Give the backbone structure.
Amino acid sequence: MTSSPFRGTAPTRVDHLVVGAGFSGLCAAIKLQEDGETDFLVVEKGDEVGGTWRDNTYPGAACDVPSQLYSFSFAPNPDWSMSFSQQPEIQAYLRRVAAESGTLDRFAFRTRLEDARWDDAAQEWVCRLSGDATGEVRSRTLVLGAGGLSEPKLPEIEGLADFEGELFHSARWDHSVDLAGKRVAVIGTGASAIQIVPEVQKVAGHLDVYQRTAPWVIPRNDRRYSAVERAALRRVPGLQKAYRTAIYWARETYVPAFTWQPKIAWPAKKLALANLRLGIKDPDLRARATPSYQIGCKRILISNTYYPALDADNADLVTDRIARVTDRAVVTADGTERPVDVIVVATGFYTTELPITEHVTGRTGRTVAETWREHGMAAYKGTTVPGFPNLFFIVGPNTGLGHSSMVFVIESQVQYLREAVRAMRAGRYGAVEPTERATRRWNAALQRRMKRTVWSTGGCSSWYLDAHGRNTITWPRTTASMRASLSRFDQAAYDVAPDQTGSTPTREDVSA
Ligand code: NAP
């Protein structure tokens, strides 16, 4: 637990209020500071930095993007022990980067943004906080780095709330529950579940895995870095950067298979089917674990241990729909009742209706959630939204990836924030807001591209699609093109208002 410097009353005004202290909020704080934008406050509802890597402590939690790429470009870590990092190591990395950044004195932990309201006369966000830091803070910009996968979603299953055994979500793992010898049910077979299942199977008396849709699972080519490799990464100038760059471009070559011609993903499909054959001996089980949609339509998962765990004597894969949960059992549609002591709910997160958007009210008096209710999430370049001046999303609409590192996306969006803040300083603007026209054109082009992606044509339903069936989560192009489009602040797409308050110092004043 990290102590908050802001226990009690928060400062009454800051230049930038950042929400969230995961990769996004931390990156924003570090880069703003680097630009001399030192007057900021980061509010975080949790006890410390880390975001998703602080919250997801379930057994087996690890990243499926290579360690060298899943880290800040400005804070390389030659000491990653594995080629794909485990959660404790990523969390330790984020703690270290935060501590060394010299920004933590402006982080308020255990603090929630209750609501934020745009004050047009003052050209400021009026933010109400609760928790360790309480009160009203006015800020020139509001940066939302609250995460796209931070609010656990429980399934709507009859009787779940009345279950009398232990029940918890994958992202809220209850470590006080000893699973040894217990009858455990895992609901879901997504990225979280397939990491949890092998760990639970090792200790549980019996494990039932409730599958609605079979995932595609390719082998996890994970390995431990040798001491020699780590020494080389530390000592040989440029080596780590070259290694990271090679991983990055290798991953960029996967993009056409997702966004243009799904058929060219056949090597991945072959690999996944071989993984299935190798991992499951029982032909009936293998058939039930075989996906029936195009690979890539849902996130491609990586594991060497998931299939053998399903094939173990103490595990069952249940493919009948869950009808209800009783006080001590899960009942499927065929009437079978399976007694259970513990239910692990690995059913994902609120993704297309981000809870934070309910709390942010813009220039016209509507919240972001209300603005998006009719047609779904849409932002300009995934970052800014008409009607919400000086608001910046990190990991906003259509910035998600199926093939590469979200840290790259986060750094790209933070770069755009920096450019916008620089433009505001240079032009003495009090408010910048993307035009409706630019936003409409951006999203029309994006959705046109989306039509031919595997996420639209692959024959699956996924958390990328909203209630209107529109993909508002993933980015349908290369990450290199995303970075290029976010590399400068394109003022022509914005309505800018001069600073009416005279309170925006120029860049020279800031760095003086
Ligand atoms: P998820 O991918 O949304 O998976 C949720 C699972 O629960 C799916 O199998 C889904 O089935 C099932 N489900 C949902 N509602 C259900 C219901 N009412 N009854 C039965 N089953 C239900 O969630 P997640 O596994 O937590 O992963 C979310 C995202 O987090 C990932 O896609 C990834 O981006 C990220 N993540 C990454 C890692 C990593 O890097 N290794 C690890 C964990 C998570 P359907 O498929 O039928 O919808």
